Amino acid sequence: MSLIANLLTLHHADRQLRALRTRLDGAEAALAKSKHAEVDAGIRARELKVQAMQLRAAAANIEAESGSVQSRIERHREELNKSTNMRQYETLLADMKLQQDKRGELDSSALNFMEKADQLDTQVQAAAAEVSRRHHAMELAETELIERRADIGERLTELEVARDRAAADVPAVELALFNQLADATDGETMAEVVTVDAKRREFACAECNMELPTAIFSAVATHADAVFQCSTCRRILWLAAEPEQAEATV
Question: Are residues 36 and 83 in the same domain?
Fold first, then answer.
């Protein structure tokens, strides 16, 4: 077989292999995305839960401080009842008023924190539901990947063997070029030379549709053991017709 024929055999196996790997890669990417989404949802749920706990702890500390202030108010009230000195009475009364104002502010802050904590509890419940939904989606993606592996695993192995066998028939330099182009074009490495108008000697690359010089057509038609590339898309050119027939067309 000629070099171009061997490259076409490799091209056929490579395209099929890439198509199957794309199916598998898609399932693996979907699973990875689902796992990431589940982790993010779990982190969000934990963060909300911690924030709610912190708010309740802050409210509890404020309530404890408010209790201490109330105790001081009660002591002032007892001292007021026992006071016989007007100056002392006025001082105690003024301080008790300050403490009452302070206790009001503390109670208001504690209530505000508790209300925020209750709001976060609602968000925590929603986040927990989201975690459950994401976990279910992850399980579905995992099942899909397992099924795809079972479905195409054997065929994938066959194509890998076929590609390796075809690659062994291609010289190292041309194989390196083929692999480079295959990665760059997602497997669309080869391009057929098509005749646009035989009488006018107009030819084109079937992949990028750009016109090819007559000299390139002639070279591809008469040199099956040499590689010629499209000057525009850089794909390796091939001709379906036999060299003799192709040359006669020119």
Answer: yes
